[in-house]
Amino acid sequence: MRFVSSSSAALKPADPQATPIVLFGHDSSGETVSAGGSAAQSIRRQSLSPDPGAWDLLAIALSVVVADGVAKRNASPDGWTRELELDVALHEPSRWAPFADSISSALAFLTTDRWSLTFRGGGDLPDAPKTPRYPSADAVALLSGGLDSLVGAIDLTAQGHKLFAVSHTVRGDAEKQARFARLIGSGLDHLQVNHNASTRRGLKETSQRSRSLIFLAFAVLAATATQRYRDGECIPVFVCENGFIAINPPLTPARIGSLSTRTAHPDFLGRMQEILDGTGLRVAITNPYAERTKGEMLRDCLDQDLLSDEAAVSTSCGRFQRFNYTHCGRCVPCQIRRAAFLAWGGHDPTEYVYDDLGRPDDDHAAFDDVRSVAMARLVVAEDGLDRWLGPALSSARITNKAALRELLQRGLDELGLLHAKFDLP
Fold first, then answer.
1. Cβ(147)–Cβ(176) below 8 Å
2. Within this chain, do residues 54 and 9 fall inside the same structural domain, yes or no?
């Protein structure tokens, strides 16, 4: 499937089979899909003036997220793998053209699709503010409303960082993102944005594995808008995710590839760092919790009082919206969350739809994700950790394989605490 994107609403691709995408605006005719209009407005309202290269990265990310949402996986020959071609208008196409293949490869790692990207001129930048504001932050941190990003923002602030928090707003999390930003330290400078990608007739592919790129694009945009970046410094972008879920090793052979999300996977973050370095964007992506479990993050948090007050407010569930903004309690992220609370030793006041995982029915102990955790632990017990891991740590960009191997064992041990609580295998 082919897409052609531009910041012009009058875009008419030469190829009639291509789907046009309007960036940083909306097409009132409803004939094209669009993305980024509200994000550009949010950035303008904060009077930010990012690097033009960061706007181009966002244009690429917006084009990707639209394509990922429009192209239905069930229409592909194998029901999952798609062939996606993007032709994106950029402000500085020559800056990005040498990295088109690298971006395509990073996307293939995220989504297990075949991507082909080309860049051309003609991409307009959103209007610059009349009086720019340059935040005094020394670092950017993603603040999702999740438990890991909450711990990360608390710790980084306690360590002396002056953070610019960036949130991708989704329904059910926007209020808690603002709450956390308000409560941490003396209050964090905070940018909340959403890609608002549209699809014709409301059709949407729900897997959306490429959304990791849009998170980073928003963070890079914020980093390049700071005073320190303007002064020539390199700005760290902190992606705070426990190491177990960052690697997200397939619990069973049926969950390989992009069936599991890879937002903070070290291979993906490494690929993105190489692209940022090559395009001259002075941003350093860091996951300070790459070698820690979620339970260890909670236990070692530098403000235990604030964490105790706010941990239950955070979101971890992969099906949060589906269950009316309540944690399901049985998906893999919920199990990791519940295990972390047990490892922390703190009371978990989170409400779970499926609380008693020991009930032997399809909704509880027999639910696929619960069985998958049990099966993974069984394989490790019988055949060893390396048999279960397989190629999960095979990337050449992973240089701390021994430390991550130990981390993954500790993560499984934490999950074992949860299963033992309910007398599960």
1. no
2. yes
